[in-house]
Amino acid sequence: MPIKKLLILFLALSPLCSFAGVLRCGNGTDIRSLQSGIHQVPAGDTLLIAPGTYKQGNLFIRKSLTLLAEGKVVLDGEMKDEIITVFSPHVRIKGFTIINSGNLSTKDLAGIKVLATRDVFIENNTLYKCTFGIYLSNTRNCYIRHNKISGDALADQSIGNGIHVWKADSAIIENNESTGQRDGIYFEFVTNSQIRNNQSHHNFRYGLHFMFSHSNTYTSNEFRENGAGVAVMYSHHVKMHNNVFDHNWGPSSYGILLKDITDSEVLDNRFENNSAGIYMEGSNRIKMERNDFLNNGWALRIQASCTDNVVSHNNFSGNTFDVSTNGETQLNSFNHNYWDKYEGYDLNKDGKGDIPYRPVSLFSMIVEQLPPGLLLLRSFMVYLLDKAEKIIPSLTPTNLMDEQPAMKFIPHPSGVSAFSTLDRIKNNLTINT
């Protein structure tokens, strides 16, 4: 029998054990109160909770320890209060099912809350029907990983965020799943942190919400079927790499909203089946490269308040509108993108179109000013107007063009599998027809 299983069996047969820095408490032990177990375990040791369901109110942790579940351990807040509150550094919470936190309009109640400390690890927990799932406030070097968080509220006013991080530095949020919350993941006043390999889906508002959070990175996450996708606002030096933004639909929805963002990167992402892939407002010096925009309503909505952004080596395929804007002057750079609507040619066969491509259609500008005009989307008159505008540009921005559009779809790790068979066939042609 493996040593680990022998240790667990030994612990299970011992009503009170402090061997090797482990104290066991809960059902079937001499220490039935979990809070008493927390008081009695020496700092730096492990408190092992016996299997069972516990309704013992909020557990306060004011010393360094590991709180470990032995098998199936359910902590039930009975809809009254928080369930675990951590005040001390070097705490690890692992393996619990945490359900039914309280819900107050005057206080952010959570399944697990960490306050004004550092080096806290929260991993392999399941949180269900908690107003806020995991809540970090004024922390440093905290890890949240391999947790599953789900809510069941009927409206976002009655529930909080799955993972809520406020005023923190160097947090790691990885391999979590958040669903049915207000925002799947929320950052405010957070710096030097990473969000990676998470799934955030079916949340009422945003899959991810950034506010005033600088020098952070989010990579390899999936944001699917959220109320409004992802919002990154009032931040700078944000890296957004290798994420999937899928089926974020609604009248005011998008894959990403970039509002007042500067000096950031949007690289190697896939935007598929969103109302708008990216909506940009007041955002400057963004590098937007190697992304796939597939089957969106709008691939890129870039307002006239955005300047000095570089959009290059992206794929635009199957979108109703590739690019739209609300102004005649554009100070952004578009180069060497693939556009499935491009009708140009490549006589010298260098893989680049010999004539520039203007991705903004006349009709898209009309819709920006008059949204009900979408009712005419498939009309023959709209088709004629757009064709005439392509030949003799008069109302669309004359300087918004791709000087050397790519003739073939550009392979990216994030989007090759989603590319349609029809477009693959077209890419075998030197001249698009």
Report on this structure.
With 433 residues, the chain is mainly beta. It has one domain: Pectate Lyase C-like (3 Solenoid). The chain has five helices and 38 strands. The strands form two sheets. It has a 25-stranded parallel beta sheet that branches. Strand 1 (22-25), helix 2 and strand 2 (46-49) form a beta-alpha-beta unit. Mean pLDDT is 86; it is low at 9-20 and 414-433.
Percent of residues in helical segments? Answer: 10-25%
Strand content: 35-45%
CATH class: Mainly Beta
Total strand segments = 38
The rounded distance between the terminal residues' Cα atoms is 68 Å
Report the total helices: 5
Structural class: mainly beta
Point out poorly predicted stretches. Answer: 9-20, 414-433
**Number of structurally distinct domains:** 1
Structure summary:
This protein is mainly β and 433 residues long.
What are the key terms here?
25-stranded parallel sheet, 433 residues, 13-stranded parallel sheet, 5 helices, Pectate Lyase C-like, elongated, disordered C terminus, 38 strands
List the helices and strands and how they pair.
Blueprint: H1 3-13, E1 22-25, H2 34-40, E2 46-49, E3 52-54, E4 59-61, E5 65-69, E6 73-76, E7 84-86, E8 91-94, E9 97-99, E10 110-115, E11 120-123, E12 126-128, E13 132-140, E14 143-145, E15 148-150, E16 163-169, E17 172-174, E18 177-179, E19 185-191, E20 194-196, E21 199-201, E22 208-211, E23 217-219, E24 222-224, E25 230-236, E26 239-241, E27 244-246, E28 256-267, E29 270-272, E30 276-281, E31 284-289, E32 292-294, E33 298-302, E34 307-312, E35 315-317, E36 321-324, E37 331-335, E38 338-339, H3 362-369, H4 380-391, H5 421-427
